[in-house]
Amino acid sequence: MKQTINFTLNGELVEVEIEPHLTLLQLLRDKLELIGTKEGCGMGECGACTVLLDGKTVNSCIFPAMEVEGKKVVTIEGLMDAQGNLHPIQKAFVEQGAVQCGFCTPGMVLSAKALLDENPKPTEEEIRHGIAGNLCRCTGYIQIIEAIKAVSGQ
Amino acid sequence: MKKFDYLKPKSIEEALTLLDQYGEKAKLIAGGTDVIVMVKQKTMAPEVLISLQAIPGLNEINYNGFLSIGPMVTHRMIEKSELIKKDYSALADAVSWLGSIQIRNVATIGGNICTAAPSADTATPLLVLGTQVKIKSLKEERVVPIEEFFKGPGETVLKKGELIKELMIPKPLPNTGSAYYKLQRRLALDLPILGVSALLSLDKNKVTCADMLCTTSPISSILHKMEEDDLVCKEVRIALGVAAPTPMRAVKAETLLRGKKLSDELLEEVAETAAKEAQPRDSIRGEAWYRRDMIKVLVKRMAMKSIERVIQPEETVFPERLW
After folding, report:
1. Which pTM does this prediction carry?
2. Do B103 and A23 count as a contact with CB atoms less than 8 A apart?
3. Per-residue pLDDT tens digits for B226-273
4. Helices A105-118 & A88-95, crossing angle to 10 degrees?
5. DSSP conformational letter for A28
6. Which of B36, B103, B189 lies nearest to residue A23, judging by beta carbons?
7. Residue range(s) defining the domain that contains residue B276
8. Cβ–Cβ gap A66/B32 under 8 Å
9. Which residues in A lie closer than 8 A to residue B1 (C-beta atoms)?
10. What is the pLDDT of residue B313?
11. A3-78 matches A88-151 in fold
12. Do B51 and A50 touch (CB under 8 A)?
């Protein structure tokens, strides 16, 4: 039986009718057509599907869509400002060459955002710990770490 | 993925009533980091998932003479708790290396022990900390010591229609330290090859060789030096994960150490006894002989880490600096 849920998505209230077995990732990509969020492993191991839920990172591929009722979800699409400018973290990723194939990037950027929101000047070790849940198979992480350092003014 | 209905009761009574009503067709879901994966892998096929997220009061950490942890408390909340880091360090160690931040933001401690994996990271810390599990059904409420909670891989004492209401952990004795070490191949998103927890209560918190604890001196030389201080181990608990079908206490090893003066020889014997008590198996992550050898090493190191945390409490962070 379909159920109606209400939540805030990238700053806007949405009401959507869903089948209760959907994951948050299926809701975002298949129902709401926000395909910035990627599906990697689908088992909560790789972090490609990372989104922010009330400011905290979650793996949307194993998160029940029914649990976002009344909560705030931010996806990679929600980081640009109203004028269409990239978020400073996105800019830094571009400038530091932290993007190759780009598949891990949306999740990586959101993990970086959650880290910097909580700890604006993280040490390199804290950065590594902060993005440990996001696998990147291209860059070797160095440019990603450099990008996060650059945004935090280091 | 298989379709299921998703219910969100607003009280424990409502959840238990639904659980009774749907019986075998229903499964409880906490954070869902195990349950949703099992449904995706088709190792579980519930028709109804009953979520405990909307029930108020289950995700609180409180201290009233004893530590009370709600079953819906996430690993991340435990990781951030200063009280747990200070007085229940083994548990803080365990949650800091579990999964990833994404997993820890969602996965709950109640879920971790209900899944009852032999590798459950929080199991051995809960064992050494002397945890009591409060279980509730529509008919009764009962309290089970954590030693009796695990029955086998994926099996617990929970009967149909029961759920965990609270984890209760006593206040540690004075001069107590505890530590957990997760032996793993990578530092995130891995399951342990072995998990070792220890808790030691000492008769004092001052030794003449305190400075040596913060150096890289070999563990044996620190312990030899410590023998001059007549440091007595008043209480001890040792627990092993992935060393048997369920997380286990190394009771014989504990008995050797309890009430005795600490020495290098004694700790060596304790660690060897723990290795003998364990029944590890060969698995994809590690072979039995290797696990047994590493129990010897890690029991001694975790005992030492616990001692260090009594004597140098300000150094209490991760057990990353070992000997």
Report:
1. 0.95
2. no
3. 888 999 999 999 999 999 999 999 999 999 999 999 999 999 999 999
4. 120
5. I
6. B36
7. 176-315
8. no
9. 21, 23
10. 81
11. no
12. no
Q: Which of A37, A59, A68, A73 to mutate to test the interface with B (most CBs of B within 10 A)?
A: A59
Could you report the predicted ipTM of this complex, rounded to two decimals? Answer: 0.97
Answer whether residue B320 is part of any domain: no
Asked if the Cβ–Cβ distance from A59 to B8 is below 8 Å, we say: no
Residue B127 lies in a domain: yes
pLDDT digits (tens, 9 = 90+) for B101-141: 999 999 999 999 999 999 999 999 999 999 999 999 999 99
Q: Minimal Cα distance from A112: which residue of B? A: B101
Domain boundary among B141, B170, B199: B170
Interface test with A, best of B102, B103, B104, B187 (most A CBs within 10 A): B102
Asked if B256 and B237 count as a contact pair (C-beta separation under 8 A), the reply is no
Among A57, A62, A135, select the one facing B37 at the smallest CB separation: A62
Domain layout of chain A by residue ranges: 3-78, 88-151
B55, B9 contact by CB (below 8 A):
yes
The CATH topology of domain A3-78 is: Ubiquitin-like (UB roll) (3.10.20)
Q: Of B248, B21, B149, B33, which is closest to residue A64 (Cα–Cα)? A: B33
Residue of A nearest to B47 (CA): A21
- Total domains in the fold of chain B: 3
CA B21 – CA B17 distance, rounded (Å): 6
Arch. (CATH architecture) of A88-151: Orthogonal Bundle (1.10)
What span, in angstroms and rounded, lies between the C-alpha atoms of A12 and A123? Answer: 34
> Is the distance from CB of A114 to CB of A148 less than 8 angstroms?
no
